[in-house]
Amino acid sequence: MRNTFDLIYLIPLLPLIGFLINGLARNVLSKTMVSIIGSGVIFLAFLLSVVVFMSIRGEGFIPQVISYFDFINVGKIKVSFAFQVDQLSSLFLLIITGVGFLIHVYSTSYMKEENAANFARYFSYLNLFVFSMLLLVLGANYVIMFIGWEGVGLCSYLLIGYWFKNTIYNNAAKKAFIMNRIGDLGFLLGIFWMINSLGSVSFQDLFNNENGIVNGISTLNTHTMVGITLLLFVGAIGKSAQIPLYTWLPDAMAGPTPVSALIHAATMVTAGIYMIARSNLMYTLAPTTMTVVAIVGLATAILGATIALKQNDIKKVLAYSTVSQLGYMFLGLGVGAYTGAVFHVMTHAFFKALLFLGAGSVIHAMGGGQDIRKMGGLSKHMRITYITFFIGCIAIAGIPPFSGFFSKDEILSGVFANNPVLYVIGLGGALLTAFYMFRLLAMTFMGKFRGTEEQLHHVHESPSAITVPLIILAFLSMVGGLVGIPAYLMSGGHKLGQFLDPIFLNSNAILAKYEIAHHTEWILTGVSTILILIVSLWAWKKYKNYQPETAEETGLAKVLQNKWYVDELYDAIIVRPLRSLSLFLNNVVERSGIDGLVNGVGKGINYGSRQIRLLQSGQVGAYILMMVIGTIVLFIIQMFAK
Amino acid sequence: MEIKWYIFLSVALFCIGIIGALTRRNAIIVFMCIELMLNSVNLLLVAFSKMHLSGMGAGFPQYATDAQLFVFFIMVVAAAEVSVGLAIIVMMYRNTHSIDINFLNRLKN
Amino acid sequence: MGTYITFPELLLWFPLVTGLIAFFIKEQKSVKAWALFSSLITLGISVVSLCYSDSTKYFSYNYVSYEWLKYIGSNFSVGLDGMGHMLTFLTALSFPIIFLATYKNDYKNANAFFGLMLLSQAGLIGVFVAIDALVFYFFWELALIPVYFLCSRWGGEKRIQATWKFFIYTFVSSLLMLVGIIYVYLQTQPAQFSEHSFSLIAFYNANISPGNQSWLFWLFFIAFAVKMPVFPFHTWQPDTYEQSPAPVTMVLSGIMVKMGVFAVIRWVLPIFPSAILKFDNIVIGLSIAGMLYASCIAMVQNDLKRLVAYSSIAHIGLMCAAIFTTNTTGMSGVMIQMLNHGINIIALWIVVDIIEKHTGIRKISELGGLAVHTPLLAIFFVVIALANIALPLTNAFIGEFAMFTGLYEYNAWYAALAGLSIILAAVYTLNMVQKVFYGEDNILTKVVSLVTVKQKIVLTVIVIFIFVLGVYPKPVFDLTKDTVTTILSHLRDPSSMGFK
After folding, report:
1. Which of B102, B106, B109 should we substitute to test contact with A (largest number of A Cβ atoms within 10 Å)?
2. CB neighbours (10 Å) of residue C356?
3. Contact A471, A384 (CB under 8 A)
4. Inside any domain, residue B108
5. Is B56 inside any structural domain?
6. Do A602 and C330 touch (CB under 8 A)?
7. Which residues contact C446 (CB under 8 A, 6 or more apart)?
8. Which residue in chain C is spatially nearest to A597 when comparing CA positions?
9. B106, part of any domain
10. 3-state secondary structure of A80
11. Which of A147, A192, A578 sits opposite C404 (nearest CB)?
């Protein structure tokens, strides 16, 4: 078994090598070579991840830490460059490399119109992203995790601004990076706090479970624990686009669509969930933070869903949907349904990647158009895209037996057990999800084509490099949920729960068990499923034969269309005041204040010299007189001094 | 003779020199006044050395010879200074056709 | 004492002698080659000396002392400890990098230019190796005086004004320091031939009352704070950086700035322990205010050089704050950051210089789209800029991480406040990258030709350096560990003779 994990460094190393080759030789390699190298390394990493996963699956696997060298070992900081191999990280390895590989394959076709150097640049960024993401989930302590954490932020920045000639895209990229940095500051402060009060940031030291006794964090008081977890959560807010730092994610849709699928839907944005799941014990011991997480998650879920109702850009709808779904995951974490949240990360990776890739296929067919008001009737032209997109919609809406149903159901039942009021709000959000997804589906694929003649002529089904990943992801979206069948449907059906049990063991022992009777669960599931079906059909009917409205939106609809004016609000209360302050400091304090003072001293001396110079009249007689007076004065001083 | 008469003479010469240097505008006369001051000091030196050799200051013969020697030094230096000074005055006269020191205020600007 | 005693001397005399020789080489080409050759040899010596370093012994290796002004208690003593090793290495490494990167630039009176550069290098090395207060003061001035000339003779349009400001600032502060040195000297114990002594050890053991320490501390600190520079003593810096010729700017920001940081660690911390404990709050507060202040100003700068200058002020503020946390973590962070910041900022100036030379403009608003024509330069710049904002796996992350941890250990709120600069740094750096390299190109930026081979080599070396130290910083930490522990233990308990 040791041999398997000795090679674990290859998993992140392979994408790094891919990055280096594609990046350094970008002017030399042909597009085919770039595609083969770029996708090949990810595929190899995927195979290795599968091997790791298989060796972990067995019962009684003990989490392993593989250390390589001392990273920073100075003063209070003791951080080694080490990887953590356990159930949670191996699951994420599979998701990242698996979905990542499919998206790489998809990209080979999607990006083929770029020139060779840019094509290689794109793939090198993508490989670098996978490398960072793998570092993030493999890191055996918070610092290594943070390396990956910032690394993925960087790649996200580079890929959003991939078409760097476009200023709007660049601004979106910059916004994403800066908002992430705000979160990162919280994360960093959390790490500093841990270093200072615990002396370690390694997961093993913190959450070690020997003979049932939790070391490390058990020495902390609740106050500290709440502080640390809240700071870490700030990091998660930035990375996973929660209120108040979510606005970068919709803007991030400026990047190429496969990037949106990989980074801004399937993997990077779920880093926050991974981090909290990783620190689950600390969060469990800080109930205040749990409440905050749940409320922020729920608020984001609802906010994202409401905005998605009125968006007309196919990618923006999906982006807000991602924000909303991430909110659900945090809601799950906040109520202690850790397994449910991780489960939802997995299913979400499948169906959201599918939806984004489907959207990419549509955009491709439309020649770059993203406005769903100008689409329609595409189902006739793009059967595979249509069917797979349809499957994705069913999955995200939470209609059984597709994957989204199981994971969302698990989160919601956890919420119900915790607080029924939250459940009702959460269910409301789920209904909104169903509505906007079927609105999107209907407007895109049903009815008459509303684009230009030229576009209609151009519309076609995408090549197989695009459709095959779609089909695979559609399949996963259909059956992916079956690894987590809840107990009331099938006893022992929750394979994922059993697999992840060792990770959440301590937390589950501490959390008060809210048992829900099976018949209650049946009722809840039944009611919610029926409601979702009704809403889906309603949206479908309403938008099946959509005709562009000429009237301007009013009232709430207008507010929603303008995303609750949050961007404008931030601009008014943060960006502009900061800029004014900076200008004030530059022009007034720096130029006139400090510099003025220093120059003033210089000018003062200059002026004084000019005045004193007048004494030098040039009259020799005056000089002699002064000399004599000086001598006399010296004599007098001499006389009185004695 | 008592030392005090030498001192009185010397002070008188020095004062004449100062007053002359301060009040006269002719460069040559100013120059001569400066020489006068210098020589009044010389006179004092010689007088004190004599005093040290005999009378109230007896017992320090080495100072006496030192002072005599110094006078020669000063005279040599003064001679050199006079030559330079006169040369300057000659040049000044050539340039300005005047030896009035109040014309020498060019340094001012 | 062994056979290695000659390293500090060699490092000191070599550039001094070659610098003097350089004055007599009239031809532009040969003097360039001579300067490059000399700096490479110095680098070689420095690398060899690193191999012989023994970081466990403070000054015990590489220590040499001559009788100098023995009747006033000053010996010409020079020595290398871990910190000295690191900084002489930085100096030795920087000069060949600077010469190579600006090899294409031509100067009037090239012999004087390169002669002064090498003299300045000798002065810098002297500052880092001096372990006698007078020797230290001597080299401190030797390092600065050539810069005045370099700046005033080969600088930009407003060079006289800038040099004047620079001169006033540094000269006044140097004089303050001299007064301080003499006062401390008068409090030292008798030495062999004299009543007092200028040696470092005598200074460390000087008997200064806490009341006197308070004002002496400010005399010294202001001298070094001007050099770093710490807010509000910084306004000479943007002007001087803007007006100086590129190589001088690189020397100033890459190494001279470290002179201030270094001097605070060696000549302030152990000498005035009780003043440190009294004023640490004020100094850290000042530094953090300066960080945020400089970051804010950097955000609205339109001049590339001034932007980099202000970003440098912000970074130095963090170093200064971390020194005064007086804990091992923060201090070690400062140590490694001195090296990192030196390399990174020089690299940044190299790129800025290339841009300015090729396009003739420094206004950020007029640039744009450079990545279209020089993707290579864009890659270098982005990597260096990211190192500048301390992205993990670049060298600056290690330093900043340790410094912030140290600051947090000192006071969590200070760390949180200082942390805001991380965000601001991202804002202005990305703004700069975007405005200069991204977007559509314009007429001015179309003419950009390629980076020269020498510049490619230099930048590649720097980029490799950035990543190697970013992944494996252990050698630097090991090298400077002993300096940190010795100085800190002396600070905590002045009676303990932790050094010899």
Report:
1. B102
2. 15
3. yes
4. no
5. yes
6. no
7. C373
8. C235
9. no
10. strand
11. A192
Contact B53, B65 (CB under 8 A): no
Q: 3-state secondary structure string, C456-474?
A: HHHHHHHHHHHHHHHHCCH
**Pair of tokens at residue A176:** 């994403």
ipTM of the complex in this document: 0.91
pLDDT at C238: 87
Instruction: In whole angstroms, give the CA distance from residue A563 to residue C127.
Output: 60
Torsion of Cα atoms, A364 then A365 then A367 then A373, to 10°: -110
CB-based contact, A75 to chain C, within 8 Å = yes
Q: Where are the domains of chain A?
A: 2-561, 570-641
> What CATH number should be reported for the domain holding residue B77?
1.10.287.3510
Touch criterion met for A and B (3+ Cβ pairs within 8 Å): yes
Give all chains having 3 or more CB-to-CB distances under 8 Å with chain B.
A
Closest CA to A203 of A223, A189, A217: A217
CA distances from residue A378 to A258, A361, A536 in whole angstroms, order as listed: 20, 11, 19
Q: Which of A164, A318, A179, A345 is nearest to A255 (CA)?
A: A164
User: Is residue B94 less than 8 Å (CB to CB) from chain A?
Assistant: no
Query: Which of B99, B107, B109 best probes binding to A when mutated, by most A CB atoms within 10 angstroms?
Result: B107
> Cβ atoms within 10 A of the Cβ of B6, count?
17
pLDDT average per 10 residues of sequence, chain C (500 residues): 62 89 88 91 88 62 71 82 88 92 85 91 91 90 89 85 84 89 86 77 82 89 88 85 89 90 90 88 92 91 90 92 91 92 92 85 82 84 90 91 92 91 91 86 68 87 92 88 85 62
Query: Is position B34 within any domain?
Result: yes
Domain count, chain B: 1
Residue type, A31: K
Peptide bond connecting C475 to the previous residue in cis, omega within 30 degrees of 0 = no
Kindly determine whether residue C474 and residue A70, on different chains, have CB atoms separated by under 8 Å: yes
Asked whether the CA dihedral B51, B54, B60, B66 is positive or negative, the reply is positive
- What sign results for the dihedral spanned by CA atoms A494, A498, A503, A507? positive
Q: What is the pTM of this model?
A: 0.87
Q: Structural domain boundaries of chain C? A: 4-492
CB contact under 8 A, A585 and C165: no
Q: How much is the pLDDT for C5?
A: 52
Chain A contact present for B101, CB below 8 A: yes
Place of tokens 């197989």: A464
- Interface contact B22-A628, CB threshold 8 A: yes
**Which structural domain, as residue segments, surrounds residue B26?**
3-100
For A:588-627, CB contacts with B below 8 A are 616-621, 624-625
Closest Cβ opposite residue A621 in set B22, B107, B108? B22
C366 is written with which tokens?
Answer: 């007029």
